[in-house]
Structure formats: C-alpha cells, structure tokens
Design brief:
Structural class of chain A: alpha+beta
Oligomer: homodimer
Largest sheet of chain A: 4 strands, mixed
CATH architecture of the largest domain in chain A: Up-down Bundle
Largest interface: A-B, 37 and 36 residues
CATH class of the largest domain in chain A: Mainly Alpha
Chain lengths: 202, 202
Amino acid sequence: MKLFNATAPNPRRVRIFLAEKGATLPTTDVNLTEGESRTPDFLAMNSLGHTPVLKLDDGTVITESVAICRFLEETFADPPLFGADQVDRARVEMWNRRMEIEIFNPCGNIAQHTFEFFADKVRQVPEFAAAQRKTVPEKWQWLEGEMSDGREFISGDRFSVADITGMVASGLAEVLEVGVPASCPNLRKWDQRMRARPSWDA
Amino acid sequence: MKLFNATAPNPRRVRIFLAEKGATLPTTDVNLTEGESRTPDFLAMNSLGHTPVLKLDDGTVITESVAICRFLEETFADPPLFGADQVDRARVEMWNRRMEIEIFNPCGNIAQHTFEFFADKVRQVPEFAAAQRKTVPEKWQWLEGEMSDGREFISGDRFSVADITGMVASGLAEVLEVGVPASCPNLRKWDQRMRARPSWDA
C-alpha cells in the first residue's frame, strides 16, 4: 500500500498514528500549496481533493484520516489505539469524536474561513471564524472540567487516537493563538505530556 | 443498558441503527424543547448536554451517536453495519465520515445557526447558515457523481451506517428545503430506496 500525505493537520493525524505504532509506509508527499491535491490524477483518487489518501495494492482507495487510521489499526495491531475491548472501543470513539467536534473542528473553521489557501475551496465567512475563535477557549475549559479527575489520557488510562486528535488540535490551536489556556492546569499537564512524546514531531 | 434519546437528527441515527438490527433497548425520552437535556442530572451524564446517551449496567456512559452505534454493533452483530472485513470497515468509515462531514454537518449548521432553539447554545452567525445553504446542493451534486456507478448503497453493495447518516441528512435537508435535487437521478433513486425501508420511520 501507499500513503499520499501532506503538511496539514489531518495528514498529521495519520503520521502520529503510524509513529505511535512504530510503523512506516511508502509515502508520496503531496504539495498542497502547489495544487498537487487538485490535479486530475489526484482527483481521480479522491474527488474531494483532500489528503491523506491510502491506496491499497489492489487499487482500493481509502480517504479520511480516521478511516485510514482504522484500517492501519488492523494491519498494525499493537499497541491498540482505538480501544482494547468493547467498552473501551466505544469510549475511545466517543472521545475521538468529542475532541474532533468540540475542539479540532472549531480550530479548523478559524483556519478555513480566514486563510487565503481556502479562499477558492470554502465559501468563507470571516464572522463565523471570529465566533469560533471565541468558542475554542470555552471548549478547552469544558475539557479541563472533564480532565479534572487527574486521568493521564483523554479517554482514560491508555493513550489512544483521541489523544492524537487532541495533539493535532492543540498544535493547530497554538498557531491560531487559541492554544490550551493557563486557566486549564490539568489540560496543560496533558498537553506537556503529549508534546514530550516522540510522535509529536511526526 | 438504557438509552436516553430524543427527537432530533443525531438521536435518529441510533433509532434507525437499532431498527436495522431488529433490536430494541429500554429508552427514556428526553424532551429537548422542555430543557430536559440541560438538567443537573442529565449534565452529570453528559456534560455537553447532548443526546443520545447510552448508560451501561455498570454506570458507564457512552455519548455521541456513532460511538453508541459502534458499541451496539458488537452487542447485536447481525447484520454488520460498520463493514464486514478490514477493507469494508475502512470504506464504511470513510463513507460515514464523508456523509457526515460533507452533507449532514452543513445541514446541521443551517439549523444551528438559524433556529431559535440553538440561540442560547451556539454563537449563531446567520451569514454562515446562508453560505452553508449554498454549499449543500453542491455537495449533493458531488455525491451524485460518486453514485453514478449505479451502486445500490453509499459505501458499495451493502447497507451500512453510511446510508443511515445519509438518511438522516436527507430528512433534515428536506425540512430545510435543501433536499436531494432533481438534477441528481442516481441519488434520487438511492433516496427513494432508503425512504422505502421500514427503518425510515424509526
């Protein structure tokens, strides 16, 4: 199989996932600013023009970072990053979605509705970006409440894909100047632990 | 276990999922317009105040409709709705996310940024709702292109949770007057097939 990946938050989710698995894949770098995800060849793989894309040896194409991670979870079983039993798998899915919907997406919205890169890809509404900028700190504060039980990872006592989504959200939020606030001590400790992992640099 | 559910699109995903499994669960109806998802008792279960919520017999709480469906997939194995093998599972995840991100979420955004119900829950930006209203028909058209291979279901030749997300999106879009357009014949046929399923009325 072959991974088509890029320098962007969603592609980073797959890179961290692979690093945490200790796995590597043959990878083609797609230069987004050069328009390489909008060429006819690329659009034939993913009509949405999004990265990452995983192409299997039989030609099957899997898009969406979480779908690619889920495929790789079955190829590289250890350590499990989507949960270890039925309840854990449901809890990891719950927390991965919470991290994505409540934190990562609002950060992504700020970028998509203000960055020049997205001007020809998204019907930009700067007022929406401004509103989302006010929302992100409230969401960090909500998450601080959830983490106040002192647990080590987002979904419990084991590192999971929910932490990966959180890592990518934290990195993006920092660039956008809405990173984990000082008013969230438990979350700050989690953030420091995540930044100390070798996979942070993936 | 016990399901706390409501009359809303995300809760409907779980209802259709259960109907497709031929399964039932003890259920408490949460009246959203009466504020029953914002009571101290409910917030103690789900600090986000969202439905659905699944409470297991040991007190474990699972939130997020897709996480609940994923838990139920392991309790009620047949028919598989998240895919039947590794590639199928990845493809279903890909398509469930595409249906959610590309179609269901823009419809949800129209509602959340214009409906009075959300005025105290979301920092509403009506200009964003107006922009999303223009986006939805373009996304249906994109999906029509994907469905032009004549396949019966969203992710291939088997009904899956991706169809369920599409059903809920189609129903919501219809209410918002951005339903599947006449310019999308393959999608219209899929939509008619979905509306003919007994689970449509769940």
